[in-house]
Amino acid sequence: MLLADPSLRDGTFDQSVILISEHSPEDGAFGLILNQPTGKLVSDYLTAPEFAPLSRIPVFTGGPVAREQLTFSAFWWSRKDGLRWAVRISLEDAIKHANRSGTIVRAFVGHSGWSPGQLEGELRRHSWFTTRPDAGLLGADHDRHLWRRILRKMSPLHRILAEAPANPTLN
What we know:
With 171 residues, this protein is an alpha+beta fold. Helices cover 21% and strands 37% of the residues. The longest helix has 9 residues, at 146-154. The protein is globular and about 50 Å long.
């Protein structure tokens, strides 16, 4: 997972928590912002009867790329493998996952993407903190406070950053 450095204040990625689900040197990286709920449900976008089983699924902003697309993703925890996911899944697969105990299904408008080498450059410039998800991620609220909750657990330095005001010069 990527957590935005506090200096990254571009609006889209400000205090974002991103799950990187695909990465290769040839293709770049693909991820979803986990903590930007839109306040809307699938039923606010898709009213056809086949979407009824997913009508109460919350919709999140996944990133600035392809914001005209709504996609489904499922997340679950495996004791053996840790956090598991299926992204950009079909309606049928989303319904199956939604009926599995311990699995959460989310809808995302857009996604986050990096061209080959772009994310590596941003990591060298310290634009992102990296961390592995823990089992508590699925039970946590995926709201704007998620960034602080994860950052606090990473180290004493990260805790200070999480507790700092948005603009320290105003103190």
